[in-house]
Amino acid sequence: MNQKKYKNLILIILFLSSFYNTFAQWVPTTPVSSPVFDFFELDNKLYCTAFGGLYYSIDVGKNWNRVSNSGTPTFDNNHITSTIVQNGIIYGIYNASVWKSANKGKTWKNILPAVFWAFAINNNEIMAIIDNGKEQLRFSKDTGNTWVDISSS
To answer: Are 138 and 130 a contacting pair, CB within 8 Å?
Structure first.
């Protein structure tokens, strides 16, 4: 009988200590004062997209710097969501279309100016579901420079 009590007590202690250790590993950090939409890593820097811009940290999130981007979009009153990084290129959604940056967010190019639903990337190949009055499945083999409608294929 005593052995069963000790066994149950040990199980309860182990169960409770697992929660303590799990939650103790999280450290709150706030890169910006607005909501953060996405995080990704590129060249040993942590990046986050937030309302008003793209930010990066070189010290695991302790300090954050805004990426100064030139041209369009400026992100002053908007944000990028759903980022994917492949081969050093950042792909993201801005105003319901797909954009890319080959220089860590300093400049951006709209590679699919259509209302997108979803996209996926594998190396330099991109597949996107869009809606320009009708649903289409588009495919690019060259990081989004050219697109082919493969909806009926």
So the answer is: yes
pLDDT per residue as tens digits for the range 62-100 = 888 888 877 767 666 677 888 889 899 999 888 888 899
Query: What do you get for the CA distance between the two ends of the chain, in Å?
Result: 70
What secondary structure does DSSP assign to 13-26, as a single string? Answer: HHHHHHHHHHHHT-
| Pairing relationship of beta strands 89-94 and 81-86 according to DSSP bridges | antiparallel
Are the C-beta atoms of residues 105 and 89 closer than 8 Å to each other?
no
Instruction: Say whether 142 sits in a helix, a strand or coil.
Output: coil
Note the pTM of the prediction, 2 decimals.
0.73
User: What whole-number distance in Å separates Cα of residue 107 and Cα of residue 129?
Assistant: 24
- Is the backbone peptide bond immediately before 28 cis, with ω within 30 degrees of 0? no
